[in-house]
Amino acid sequence: MRVAVFGTKGYDRRFLNEANAVHGHELVFLEPRLDLSTAPLAAGCGAVCIFVNDSADSRVLETLKNLGVELVALRCAGFNNVDLAAAARLGIDIVRVPAYSPHAVAEFTIGLMLAVDRHIPRAWSRVRDNNFALDGLIGRNLHERTVGVIGTGKIGAPVARSLRAGFGCEVLASDVIADPALEAIGVRYVPRATLLAEAEIVTLHCPLTPETRHLIDGAAIERVREGLLIVNTSRGALIDTAALIEGLKSRKIGGVALDVYEQEADLFFEDLSNEIVGDDVFQRLLTFPNVLVTGHQAFLTEEALSAIAATTLTSISDAEAGRPLVNRVGTERVAG
User: Fold this and answer.
1) Is residue 4 a contact partner of residue 298, using CB atoms and an 8 Å limit?
2) Is residue 103 annotated as part of the catalytic site, yes or no?
3) pLDDT at 77
4) Does the pLDDT at position 334 exceed 70?
5) CATH fold match for the domains 2-100+301-321 and 102-293
6) Of residues 23, 164, 235, 262, which has the active-site annotation?
7) Axis crossing angle, helix 302-321 with helix 102-117, rounded to the nearest 10
8) Catalytic residue at 264?
9) Which of 111, 136, 239, 288 is found 20 to 30 A from 87 (Cα to Cα)?
10) Residues with Cβ < 8 Å from 226, sequence gap 6 or more?
11) pLDDT tens across 2-45, in order?
């Protein structure tokens, strides 16, 4: 099958080409992201392959359908950038990669948590300037801290397990379905409001849906413990960034570690070091000494990229052969 692969970087091409050796698809690599203006580039393709910041809204999907596209393959777990109702109406199948390497994101989450809590980026920056003073670098142990994990699916579960069994944290969890294996090691499921009120650290691992958009907003921040540390490696719009900034200014929020950002589509995955970034909210966020932001790299391991490529191309092969699409969106539980 001829496949238009949008928003590709060098690492995408490398791992997709390696995995394609056993599939034999014709992969057309395109640097632009998918949107209404770039959708015509998929002419002659039976499938398109997209990532987190590509847009597959109703107008884009209609354009793709008119071009003969029957399948949209997301090389990621989230699908909030796809109009599923429009896809169903048009008869376009949507597949994703629900479990490419949950440990990649889980491990990065713990790394961010430690980095911001122990001021590691600030310490590294000081040492580069030959400043070895320790003033202002006092952190706190993770051991015996109360950590709230919102979403205990494929990624949230190993995060909760590591915090509980590895660091000896008191772990509170919130999810629509409790995980008995986590409960067996002492993870305690509580209502989300209770979790936000009691946790000293909150880490987000739920999908972005209309119900979870701005899960952390001004009202939620008012209810949290003073000095709460927030970590988000899931989707940027789970947090109302403007409210987060107000929480940082009031010192209600004691620290933030983000690998995702609400308006990241115009920023992340690009080299803008020679550009003037006009996002005033993002620039304000970066001024806080207790905020750590990375550019959506939690998934970026060799193991994860290999799994993403293999799963994506297998789904495309299954669609071409008329086999059941096991990773079709809507056929399995969605969790972070």
Assistant:
1) no
2) no
3) 85
4) no
5) yes
6) 235
7) 150
8) yes
9) 239
10) 251, 252, 254
11) 999 999 999 999 999 999 999 999 999 999 999 999 999 999 99
The architecture CATH gives domain 2-100+301-321: 3-Layer(aba) Sandwich (3.40)
Whether residue 97 has pLDDT greater than 80: yes
Tens of pLDDT, residue by residue over 299-317, are 999 999 999 999 999 999 9
Q: Two tokens at 65?
A: 């359908």
Q: Which pair of structure tokens corresponds to residue 302?
A: 């060799």
In the set 211, 264, 275, 323, the catalytic residue is 264
Residue that the structure tokens 């790299």 belong to: 297
pLDDT of residue 101: 81
Which tokens sit at 67?
A: 């071009």
How far is C-alpha 50 from the chain's CA centre? 15
- The answer to whether the predicted template modeling score (pTM) of the entire model surpasses 0.85 is yes
Query: How many residues are there in the chain?
Result: 336
Q: Which CATH class is domain 102-293?
A: alpha beta
**Of residues 296, 302, 328, 333, which has the active-site annotation?**
296
- Local structure of residue 165 (DSSP, 8 states): I
